[in-house]
């Protein structure tokens, strides 16, 4: 009897252990939220999406289908956030004419083959859930949002997985036309009559649903796929903002995780509010931070400051010694004022050694060239700063770093230009004084009636100084 009791207890423990271990890698519910991740660039988007789903109170599975391009660290982080991570192979895009970024988008069709779930709600990584969307699981067969009057958008979809349906799609991927060159165009061709589908009614009673034939597809309202691009056109939502369920950040170069987007697109504030609430499931990941960026951000902040201090210190020592500066400051404070000395223009003009040569030697194009150099330096500084600063920082951090680096690079470029102009001006001035003091250096050619100055020597000196500075 005791042996039977021990065997039963052992069997129970094995069963519980097996169930607990499987819960980390297999499904816990018959319905799930699904997203796709092709690389680490969209990792933060998936993390925020998962947080927004959990904030609505949902306990359904969250499944991330990841390709080989996703790092092991990203997979580990998603699992720590509560995602079930399934590694999948990419489906080849059969379209020869397509954007490069669409090379693996046909992989999205694999959600139609997730037969271990009765129903899945697919959400692309650049969406965020702002209100519970559990009612989407009432949608039957296939549901999506209609965009641009007659085209469905594949960013939010409800799917009843079926191996038969998936296999039928696979037989038609090479024959059905895709107007986008990607999965969305294919789905529009596959569900060619989608524009005529009835609107999904989540509040319909069970009796009403039973009295109607089961539809093959249904249209989701804008509330379930609110397009930020359309918001930007009207500068407002075309539906009641309080009723929004899902916001879709469709603007290509303005993804919500890029720090500059928060300054340009108002609805990104909603995304950032969820981001800062991300828990530190792995060390250094709280608030959506990347632990690898921490040292880089500190370095980017300190380098310009140290460089400017070094430049000022170098300039400080070149003018006088440190002791001279201290002594000058002491006498200035002791005397209670600052003495100034000036040189009037009349003294210069009255000197026969400077017959307005300073004015005659200034090139007429110097002003226009300086304006062009300044504008070019400003543009180059901004572009280089945007390239240096990581994209997925917090908005204020990114803004301050770009401002700091833009100023530093602009200071370097314009300072270099002014230094070259200064050197060139000194050479021209010295040469002019030399010519005025030694008139025999100017030769008169009676045959041609022209004066030949020593421009060749001056040019050589300028080139030499330029090379020394460079």
From TrEMBL:
CDD domains, alphabetized: GT8_Glycogenin
Task: Note the Gene3D superfamilies from the entry.
Answer: Spore Coat Polysaccharide Biosynthesis Protein SpsA, Chain A (3.90.550.10)
What are the transmembrane regions? Answer: 295-313, 364-388, 400-420
Question: Is the keyword Signal in the record?
Answer: yes
Q: Where is the signal peptide?
A: 1-22
Q: Which InterPro entries match?
A: GNT1/Glycosyltrans_8, Nucleotide-diphossugar_trans
Any one GO MF annotation of this record: glycosyltransferase activity
Q: Which PANTHER family does the record cross-reference, listed alphabetically?
A: GLYCOGENIN SUBFAMILY MEMBER
Q: What is this protein called?
A: Inositol phosphorylceramide glucuronosyltransferase 1
Tell me which species this is from: Olea europaea subsp. europaea
């Amino acid at each position: 009897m005791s042996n039977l009791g021990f065997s039963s207890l052992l069997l129970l423990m094995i069963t519980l252990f097996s169930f607990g271990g499987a819960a980390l890698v297999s499904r816990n519910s018959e319905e799930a939220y699904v997203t796709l991740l092709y690389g680490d660039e969209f990792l933060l988007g998936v993390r925020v999406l998962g947080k927004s789903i959990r904030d609505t109170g949902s306990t359904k599975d969250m499944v991330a289908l990841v390709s080989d391009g996703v790092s092991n660290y990203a997979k580990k982080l998603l699992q720590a956030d509560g995602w079930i991570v399934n590694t999948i192979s990419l489906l080849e895009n059969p379209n020869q004419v397509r954007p490069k970024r669409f090379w693996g988008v046909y992989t999205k069709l694999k959600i139609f083959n997730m037969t271990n779930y009765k129903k899945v709600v697919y959400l692309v990584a650049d969406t965020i859930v702002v209100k519970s969307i559990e009612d989407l699981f009432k949608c039957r067969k296939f549901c999506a949002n209609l965009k641009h009057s007659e085209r469905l958008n594949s960013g939010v979809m409800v799917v009843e997985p079926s191996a038969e349906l998936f296999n039928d799609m696979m037989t038609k991927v090479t024959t059905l036309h895709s107007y986008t060159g990607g999965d969305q165009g294919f789905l529009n061709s596959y569900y060619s009559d989608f524009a005529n589908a009835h609107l999904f009614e989540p509040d319909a009673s069970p009796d009403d649903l039973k009295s109607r034939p089961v539809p093959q597809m249904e249209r989701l309202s804008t509330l379930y796929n609110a397009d930020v691009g359309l918001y930007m056109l009207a500068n407002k939502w075309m539906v009641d903002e309080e009723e929004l369920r899902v916001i879709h950040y469709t603007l290509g170069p303005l993804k919500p995780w890029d720090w500059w987007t928060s300054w340009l697109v108002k609805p990104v504030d909603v995304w950032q509010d969820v981001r800062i609430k991300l828990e530190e499931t792995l060390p250094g990941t709280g608030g959506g931070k990347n632990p690898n960026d921490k040292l880089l951000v500190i370095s980017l902040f300190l380098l310009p400051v140290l460089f400017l201090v070094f430049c000022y210190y170098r300039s400080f020592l070149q003018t006088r010694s440190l002791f001279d500066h201290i002594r000058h400051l002491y006498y200035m404070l002791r005397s209670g004022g600052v003495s100034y000395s000036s040189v009037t223009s009349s003294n210069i003009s009255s000197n026969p050694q400077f017959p307005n040569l300073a004015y005659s030697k200034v090139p007429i194009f110097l002003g226009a060239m300086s304006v062009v150099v300044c504008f070019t330096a400003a543009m180059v500084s901004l572009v280089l700063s945007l390239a240096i600063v990581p994209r997925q920082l917090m908005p204020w951090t990114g803004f301050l770093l770009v401002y700091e680096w833009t100023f530093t690079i602009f200071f370097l470029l314009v300072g270099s230009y002014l230094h070259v102009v200064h050197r060139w001006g000194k050479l021209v001035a010295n040469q002019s004084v030399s010519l005025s003091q030694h008139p025999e250096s100017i030769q008169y050619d009676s045959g041609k009636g022209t004066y030949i100055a020593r421009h060749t020597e001056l040019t050589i000196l300028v080139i030499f100084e330029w090379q020394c500075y460079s």
